[in-house]
């Protein structure tokens, strides 16, 4: 079982990239050659919470995360980080200003070591090599990969590769982290560890989490609020209890009659 530290892993980290307490979209639409991937979606992630984003395959979850991190320009609508209008920011600027993400496919440098994978993110954000190494070491200790720091990332078990992706996203303490299906392919026991880890992020890092996840036990177990998309549209938002009873969610997401 992962035992997250009560304190942030890198004391002295520069948290000044943003003091925004909300990451939000309003009236967001994305069209791909006539296909409406997202239609008029509004939501706001608070810095102190785990905010779940669920919906059937093709609902528009990844497209929304791509917009929130500068990987996709919306066709309409506005994206804000606190008071800043970030709608047209490029991806690198989102990360520099404290909005980080993981990818479904991992995107690790598999021929580099585990430590180098984290260091390269930190140097990319402007740290010198020595400082980047310190941050990487602290982060790997926190996430439970310190003993594998010198392994090639490609040699890690699948679940550890997912955790390394989270370590890379969290280095330099972003204000928000967007996790795209972190539990995919994990066993029940691995999901338990992941739940403890993700649930601890808001308090440990003062970092809001947007969690895309198909595993209902994980998303219902650790989200304070959940937003549900279907066919690119919002069909519900509420607490896990409210969402589990919501007729439109049962009908659309779980394939049951309302
Ligand atoms: N670059 C693109 N070009 C064209 N269509 C796209 C593109 N990206 C996504 N889509 C389409 O937009 C819709 C939403 O896709 P998206 O990947 O955001 O859904 P999702 O909810 O993340 O799905 P999943 O749970 O399967 O990952 C789908 O119909 C998808 O085929």
UniProtKB/TrEMBL annotation:
<dbReference type="InterPro" id="IPR003439">
    <property type="entry name" value="ABC_transporter-like_ATP-bd"/>
</dbReference>
<dbReference type="Pfam" id="PF12399">
    <property type="entry name" value="BCA_ABC_TP_C"/>
</dbReference>
<dbReference type="GO" id="GO:0005524">
    <property type="term" value="F:ATP binding"/>
</dbReference>
<keyword id="KW-0067">ATP-binding</keyword>
<feature type="domain" description="ABC transporter">
    <location>
        <begin position="23"/>
        <end position="256"/>
    </location>
</feature>
<dbReference type="InterPro" id="IPR027417">
    <property type="entry name" value="P-loop_NTPase"/>
</dbReference>
<dbReference type="InterPro" id="IPR003593">
    <property type="entry name" value="AAA+_ATPase"/>
</dbReference>
<protein>
    <submittedName>
        <fullName>Branched-chain amino acid transport system ATP-binding protein</fullName>
    </submittedName>
</protein>
<dbReference type="InterPro" id="IPR032823">
    <property type="entry name" value="BCA_ABC_TP_C"/>
</dbReference>
<keyword id="KW-0547">Nucleotide-binding</keyword>
<keyword id="KW-0813">Transport</keyword>
<dbReference type="InterPro" id="IPR051120">
    <property type="entry name" value="ABC_AA/LPS_Transport"/>
</dbReference>
<dbReference type="Pfam" id="PF00005">
    <property type="entry name" value="ABC_tran"/>
</dbReference>
């Amino acid at each position: 079982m992962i035992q997250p530290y009560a304190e942030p892993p890198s004391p002295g980290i520069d948290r000044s990239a943003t003091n925004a307490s909300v990451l939000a979209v309003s009236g967001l639409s994305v069209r791909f050659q006539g296909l409406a991937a997202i239609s008029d979606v509004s939501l706001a992630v608070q810095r102190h919470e785990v905010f779940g984003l669920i919906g059937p395959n093709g609902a528009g979850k990844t497209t929304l995360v791509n917009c929130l991190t500068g990987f996709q320009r919306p066709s309409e609508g506005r994206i804000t980080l606190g008071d800043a209008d970030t709608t047209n920011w490029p991806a690198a600027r989102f990360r520099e200003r404290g909005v980080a993400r993981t990818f479904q496919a991992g995107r690790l440098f598999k021929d580099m070591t585990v430590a180098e994978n984290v260091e390269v993110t930190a140097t990319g954000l402007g740290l010198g090599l020595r400082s980047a190494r310190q941050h990487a070491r602290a982060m790997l200790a926190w996430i439970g990969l310190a003993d594998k720091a010198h392994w090639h990332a490609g040699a890690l078990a699948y679940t550890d590769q997912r955790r390394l992706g989270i370590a890379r996203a969290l280095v330099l303490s972003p204000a928000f982290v967007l996790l795209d299906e972190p539990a995919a392919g994990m066993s029940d026991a691995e999901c338990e560890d992941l739940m403890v880890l993700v649930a601890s992020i808001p308090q440990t890092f003062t970092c809001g989490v947007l969690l895309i996840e198909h595993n209902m036990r994980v998303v219902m177990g650790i989200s304070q609020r959940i937003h549900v998309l279907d066919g690119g549209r919002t069909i519900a938002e509420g607490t896990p209890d409210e969402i589990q009873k919501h007729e439109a969610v049962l009908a659309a997401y779980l394939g049951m009659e309302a």
